[in-house]
Amino acid sequence: MNELATPPVPGIGLTARYPEIGTGPVDTAIYHEPQIYAKEMEAIFKRSWFMVGRTEQIARAGDFFTYTLPTFRQEILVCRDRDGQVNVFHNVCTHRGNVVEHRKEGHSQGLFMCRFHGWAFDLKGGLARIRDEEGFFGVDKACNGLKRMPVGIWQGFIWVCPSDEPYQSLEEFLGDQGRDTAGYPWGACTQSYQFEVEVDCNWKLVNDSPAEVYHIPVLHPNSAAPTMMASGNIMGRLLGTEIKGHHRTNSHYSVMGEPKPVQKLAYFHAAAAQNVAVEEKGYELPKGINPTRSPWWTVDLIQFFPTIGFTLSAGMYTAHQVWPLGPNKSLYQQRVFVRPAKTAAERFGQENTMVEFRDVVMEDFSTLERIQRALDTDQIKQFHYHDHELALRHQHYVVTQILAEWDREQASAQG
Ligand code: FES
Ligand SMILES: [Fe+2]
């Protein structure tokens, strides 16, 4: 909660800082046309990296978890080997394609055994054992280990690339956004909860939802609005939007308006639990977080294009991940990370924050599905973006630029 007496009213003028992005209405075709979605798969998604978990989930050699990359329907197996390396394999047995490890997570003594015919693979993916090997016709074990998937680690997050040959390294993919947010105490927030929901809308609409706060006083009058909107900011404006290549950051302005009695209690306790600055003297947020260093700052939405965002405060964060499932279907995953609470009161404060986050997101999604119906039936051909909807305009610009570049690549490849 801010103690300064007179909050400034956030101004307009964000879009003018990025003249290449324009100010006019934008064409909505990229939000629903199947052929554009198909092109996005090739030009954007197969060239991106995707966060699948954290290294703490596999702290010891032999620890593993499995996951299905929803967009690509690929099964993966993530494990730590005895050299401490994090390996990611296609979770597909090289005998006849069954998944090698069925369990969601666990610990292996050193082998993963396929439960179809019993072939076994070691922690480095090597094919260690073929049951009744003598009945085969010279299967070369050295060439039939689990297929590796490109993997990278950034700040304790495990990222994978769905293509065998990454278009760019993880470091290049994360760019300045990755460099400017490194050093945040990502690893201190060791407790998390997650929920996911399928939404009948294009992936870009899901991204758009938290990327503007223009809608908060109107769509969330009883949830987010009472605490985010007050006399200083009744229109729901941002502190700023910073664009970094394909990525971007929204910094949120906040004045405590009229919290409900339970919110007052929760915020009082959660503030102590969540604010690392309170606990760690001399701690300073990395320069990419609260980049304006405004005293009115509460949270940033750190977006890594195309589909991973972090809503991030001084000591607690939420990962938002969107997985496209079709031109008008997406899977949304929300995972909240908190520091272990020291008291029951802190825990209560954290729980309140988590539930509020979930409820606000769910309020958004029914609106998104209505928008998608209007798009699918060609009832809206243009969107008009407010100055503080710059993040949405930027996403539209980036997608359009990438698809145009892809068309040029294809044309020159065809001679
Ligand atoms: S499919 Fe795995 S052992 Fe046969
Ligand atoms: Fe919302």
Automatic annotation (TrEMBL):
Among SUPFAM superfamilies, the record links this protein to: Bet v1-like (SSF55961), ISP domain (SSF50022)
Keywords for this entry?
A: 2Fe-2S, Iron, Iron-sulfur, Metal-binding, Oxidoreductase
A Pfam family the protein falls into = Ring_hydroxyl_A
For the keyword Endoplasmic reticulum, the answer is: no
Coiled-coil blocks: none
Going by the entry's taxonomy, the superkingdom of the source organism is recorded as: Bacteria
Residues forming the Rieske domain are 49-160
Cofactor list: Fe cation
Protein's name according to its UniProt entry: SRPBCC family protein
The source organism is: Novosphingobium anseongense
Which taxonomic lineage is given here? Bacteria, Pseudomonadati, Pseudomonadota, Alphaproteobacteria, Sphingomonadales
